[in-house]
Amino acid sequence: MRTTASSSKRDCFDALNQSNRSQCKTPAASGKTGDAATTALPTTDCHHNRSLVNKTGHSFKRTTKESSGNATGPFLSLSKLLLPSGNTSGTNSANNSNGSNNSNSKTRQKTNSKPPRNPTLITMLNNKGVIYIQRRQYAQAKKSLSRALRIAIKSEQQQESSIYFALRRGRGRNKNCNNLATNDENNNLLQDHSGNSSDESCGTAPTDFSESSSLSLEECTVRESLEDITKLLDDHETTCSDLCFQEDMEPSSLPSRASSFGEWSGVVVQTAMSSFSLFSSSSSTSQDVDSLTGVERCSSGKPAPFKHRAEYDEGMDYFRHPMRLEDSSPHMDTTILFNLARVNHNQGHYDDALILYKRSLRALEHCQHKEHLLALAILFGIGQIQYVRGDHTDSLNTYTTALSLAKAKLGPESLEVAACMNCIGVLHYIMPKGSPEVALFHLKTSIRLRKQLLGDNHIDVGTTWNNVGRIYFQQARYEKAMDAYRKALRIRRAEQGDSVDVAATIFNIGQVFHQQGERERALRHYQEFLRLAKTHFGEYHRDICIVTTCIGQVLHEKKDFKKALKAFQHALRVGRVSLGSLHPEIAITLNKLGNLHYESGDLDSALKAYHDGLEVELSVLDPGNPNICVTYTNIAEIHKQRSEYDKALENYKKVLELQRQYCNNPLEIANTLSSIGYVRHQKGDYQGAMDVNQECLRLRREVKGDVDEDVAATLTHIALVLLKMEMHDMALEVLTEAYRIRTKLSTKENRDIAFTLYNIALIYHHQGSHERALQFYLETARVEKAALGVAHRDLSITYYNIGQIYYQRGDMELALLNFHQALKIERECFGERHPTCARTLNEIGNINLQLGNVDALMANYMEALRIYRQAGVSDDHLLIYGRSLWRFECVQPEAAGAA
Question: What is the pLDDT, as a whole number, of residue 370?
Fold first, then answer.
């Protein structure tokens, strides 16, 4: 569970606005851009709700060459995107105007800097919409903002009309008069939303900055980046027939070609494409958030797959608050569009939000360069949507562009740079090919800047500490992860109380304790998260399902199977209500439930749980997802335990096919081949077992080299197959190599070394080399006692075989001693009434027969026979060896003849 928090940066913005006031010039009432009085940027009670004043002046100008679809002047007002269609006559002659209309262009630049008419009404409507957004009354917010936008559009159209006639009168019979963009000509700027227009018909002429000495190269680069963004956003735009604010906009109030916002495609600016594709096309459908469960749902009502949680803030949406206006703010349409985008963003209507962000960014592109705060806000909104959708590469590119803009405009030590650094760090943590080192660098830089500017205990510092903890947890650096999480928890608790983000950090700490094996402490933290989560989300929520599954896992590890079973069953009930029956979390819980049943010995229930989990996984996961292979393997293991080798082999083959098609990890493939080799061995297909084991050996040696435990294990398996194929000498050679590898890997006795020694002894025993066999059996017993203890079933088998060697040598006393040791261990491991004990009693009875201990042998035979009968085993299992009677005659000579 990855979570964090974010909050306001009001103090920073106040300081920033204070430092920029001397540069913020607004047009005078007459609309001229001369020596206007400086205007302060007021702040509001809302964290990011501030008035943005567009800056105008003569820091640069554009010299444009108009053609069909090209805009004139240094700005492109929103009204040009909405002008009705008409004929395009006169546009060809516009191509001949290069610099002859510079005076007219300057006049247009000055006039376009005027605030729209009715600024007070527009400001009031926008700010009213902002208040509705803050109250989460999104329907009212849409209505208010839509009305504000409609009035702003009409005001700009009226200005366009007055400018046009003024310029017509001033130009007289100028031969370049056709250079003005009429309503008919501006229709060429409208792209049909079905997307048939080309760059040649809808792009603007290149921008000329040669006359703008005040515009630095860095500023030009940032402006080109913003132009690239609007260009690349076109790849993402999809047809949207029912957009957010259309419900309040009368079709008659807009030009005929702009009655649907879906047709507002705007102008694509022709610039050099950046080196990366910032906005790739997405097939994601519009999603909403269920108000009861917090689960994202598609229009069909089914749970929609998503990568990240809306409930928890990781600092990815820094500019989350809408923006207010003041009467003197020019380019009001840009801010209103941004606020409309925020409405849809907050509602989870991501397609609509992206289109609105695009409109706002395109309109902002033609404003003066000091609208950087609004540009950053738009970029953060776009990047966060891409992040939530799982488009991590696109999101990383967006935040990287925002970082370049923030450094260029606000300086490398600003809070906005810190916010960008945090987002880039989170993305490197999330992305499969991300770099943990790069993530840590960006997150630690963000912490340094935030502590320097906000103090050690600011909530944003806590957010970033939580993100740092996740990186350390991913790297299994649990002590560092715990330190970071505790810092985050201290800050978050002080600032937020029992918030969802506090709960998230508590859960993260629980995960660290779980990985460290401190199950009791992990359980307490999981239960604390559960208490807080129920307060915020209710009983039926995705995270209730997740944490209950974690609680079940801890109880399972503590061997408290009954409580673990209840926890898993409750997690399934919650998950099916909140997520539906087909969801990855349901599959995870089902597989953990299957593991519990398997370990408790209920193979039927385990198999059912695994099959149910597999059905869900095949429905919701990609075919190459490794969880599918794990479930197939678990199913195969149960069939193998039941000696249902055909079914086991069928499932193992499915795993192998998926691994070779999607995974291509040689070690994973080798593990599956080893399992297939075992099953074929048990089925009696020794040649098939030999083939797959040899392939397994080749793969493991290629990756791990010759001296490796898995290589030694494969050699042991091959040796066992060779034994079945009666190739004893070769089997002995292979086992000797496995023993050499294992003794080289570890000087400490372990079960694997004992197993290898036992099989070497078994081969010598089979070949009749009793002395060599006894030597290896005795060494096996020594290693087993050191590694497994004196009461392990493996040791009982070794003692039994040692007894047989002594019996065959005629050492009856030593044979009897070892059989008794074997019987003692068997009774401890299996119980006194197990058939294994009957077998050993049978052997002890045969030795007593050789020794002439009649009472003892009768007691041994009767006890063995009783155990066999109680176990339902035939009396034929009781064996009295014929050669044992012959040995009896040798040991007991004939009595002397009667006198």
Answer: 56
